Amino acid sequence: MVELLLYLAKSLVNKPEEVQVKEIKREKSITLELVVNSNDFGRIIGKEGRTIKAIRNIINAVSVKQEKKVIVELVE
Predict the structure, then answer these.
(1) Are 54 and 45 in contact (CB under 8 A)?
(2) Within 10 A of 68 (CB to CB), how many other CB atoms are there?
């Protein structure tokens, strides 16, 4: 899922070399912290948060097989 999130984020931003994802595993969940350049925040969030919601929906659809909840956080 980290690779999928990296691919999605790098496709959207102007500076793909600065995209990072940190995975934090817990018992029943996984948190993916997405870090992008401050100028690319708007591209990831999108109008009214539609882009980040779509990214979260895609990641959650993939996570069903792992039977764990996956949380995508956008970190400043």
Answers:
(1) no
(2) 14
d(CA 22, CA 47): 25
Tens-place pLDDT, residues 13-27:
999 999 999 999 988
Q: Are 4 and 19 in contact (CB under 8 A)?
A: no
**Which CATH number applies to 2-75?**
3.30.300.20
Vertex 16: Cα angle to 66 and 65 (nearest 5): 10
The whole-model pTM stands at 0.89
| Maximum distance among all Cα pairs of the chain, rounded to whole angstroms | 35
What are the extents of the domains in the chain?
Answer: 2-75
